[in-house]
Design a protein that fits this description.
The complex is a heterodimer of chains A (about 80) and B (about 350). Chain A is an alpha+beta fold and about 80 residues long. Chain A is built from three helices and four strands. In chain A, strands 2-1-3-4 form a four-stranded mixed sheet. The radius of gyration of chain A is 11 Å and the shape is globular. Chain B has about 350 residues and is mostly helical. Chain B starts with 14 loop residues before the first helix and ends with a helix.
Chain lengths: ~80, ~350
């Protein structure tokens, strides 16, 4: 499973990454978490508001920081 | 891997939770209205009856003003941000892009300005949003109209101006902001700004089909519960960001209110000084604050006789252009375009200031 956090590294992006790690740990799921900070690459993902979250190559959230519970739900239903 | 489309019906908030939410919102509104009504009375009671002090004493009046104005603005911020954020959950930037894509200039500028006001947009997303618009075929001038309108016609400023000066002033502010965004964006579009955009934004590889496709996200409608949660988070975040500026601004306002004589202010920014608007904008542009930080000063200066056009120009120059946003936009706009952008917006604000002073006099 591949999880990508898309954002330039602002506070919200850090929070999202933390929530992702927390959700993965709680569910005991193994996944590679990458943080994309380059604007050109973020734009290639067609993300218009950061932070964005993608699971296995599919964008599941943009422009907000989903809670740990929401992240878990997004990962599970991907 | 099969895709699992999210059916709106599956994700609706259950009926019981909706009732609880509705009841909670009604109760909160009541509490808010009660606090607002009580605000001044409590501080006056505290000063005069509980502590036996006279409001004629300068420092007593200053502290009374400080407490009352801070509480009032904090309450207003909470109310305005909550309601506006809640309403904004019905519009996303992806939908805005869909509406603006391919529109010609002129009409596009007007639409973009309006959407800039209505769409939830954080300056931190200025770069991805800019690139996203370009990719969708939105003309650069139209994108710039959006980027100008968004911070300029700030809902907090509108709400605070309304409560302080009435709906006419608030309407003037909105109209002025929209006009500046439309005209400035259109004018900038005429200058063929593509030559001053960082090359990577216009690169064909970037403009190719996106991998993953975030367009599907727009289809995921938030539930009522999620909307309320988003609005509450917005309130918490904005209050968290704004409170130091608010305290400083109110303290400054209280000091001016109590100690700076009206004729000194009149000499610098009053009607008799033709450079008043320029001074106001010159002061406002480098100031890093937000509407909540600017309003206490505006209120106090209005009471000291500074004309409304000058004050609106001041408010707009504080909120329209911010250094952090300029730093971010530098990633996509070359310095020349950035400078022209800031210059055109500032010029627009100055023009509006003089115009309103003339009309309202």
């Amino acid at each position: 499973m591949e999880i990508t956090v898309l954002g330039p590294g602002c506070a919200n992006c850090q929070r999202l990454e933390a929530n992702v790690n927390a959700a993965l740990e709680a569910a005991g799921t193994q996944a590679t978490v990458t943080h994309v900070t380059d604007y050109a690459q973020i734009a290639a993902w067609d993300v218009m508001s950061t932070p964005g979250l993608a699971v296995n190559g599919r964008v599941v959230s943009t422009g907000r920081v989903p809670s740990v519970a929401e992240v878990a739900e997004l990962i599970a239903s991907a | 891997m099969t895709t699992h489309p999210t059916h709106a019906a599956e994700r609706r908030t259950p009926a019981r939770t909706r009732w609880l939410l509705a009841a909670g919102l009604v109760a909160a509104s009541g509490a808010w209205a009660g606090l607002y009504w009580l605000n001044e009375r409590v501080w006056t009671w505290l000063a005069e009856d509980a502590l036996g002090l006279s409001r004629d004493t300068r420092w007593v009046e200053a502290v009374h003003f400080f407490a009352y104005d801070t509480a009032k603005i904090a309450l207003l911020l909470t109310g305005i941000v909550f309601v506006v954020s809640l309403l904004r959950t019905f519009l996303t930037i992806e939908r805005t892009r869909a509406m603006l894509g391919g529109k010609r200039e002129g009409v596009g500028n007007v639409l973009a300005a309006g959407l800039g006001v209505a769409t939830p947009f954080c300056s931190c997303s200025a770069v991805p949003a800019f690139i996203g618009f370009v990719k969708a075929g939105v003309p650069l001038g139209v994108t710039l109209s959006f980027l100008i309108a968004s911070p300029l016609v700030n809902e907090i400023a509108v709400g605070l101006l309304w409560t302080a000066f009435g709906w006419r002033v608030a309407l003037l502010y909105v109209t002025a902001g929209l006009t500046i965004a439309i005209v400035a964006g259109w004018a900038l579009g005429r200058l063929r700004p593509e030559r001053w955009v960082e090359p990577f934004v216009l690169a064909p590889s970037l403009l190719a089909s996106p991998q993953g496709g975030a367009a599907g996200i727009a289809a995921r409608t938030p539930t009522m519960q999620e909307r309320v949660r988003t609005a509450l988070t917005e309130v918490r975040e904005i209050l968290g960001k704004v409170w130091p500026y608010l305290l400083v601004a109110v303290a400054l306002g209280a000091a001016i209110h109590g100690w700076v004589p009206a004729d000194l202010i009149a000499r610098v920014a009053g009607e008799s000084n033709p450079a008043g608007v320029l001074a106001a904008v010159g002061l406002g542009v480098p100031l890093y604050s937000n509407a909540a930080g600017a309003l206490p000063l505006v209120e106090v200066l209005a009471a000291k006789g500074v004309p409304m056009g000058t004050l609106l120009a001041f408010m707009m120059s504080v909120v329209a252009l911010s250094l952090p946003e300029m730093v971010l936009l530098r990633r996509v706009l070359k310095p020349r375009l950035l400078a022209i952008f800031a210059g055109v917006v500032a010029a627009g604000i100055v023009a509006v200031g003089y115009l309103f002073n003339a009309i309202l006099a």
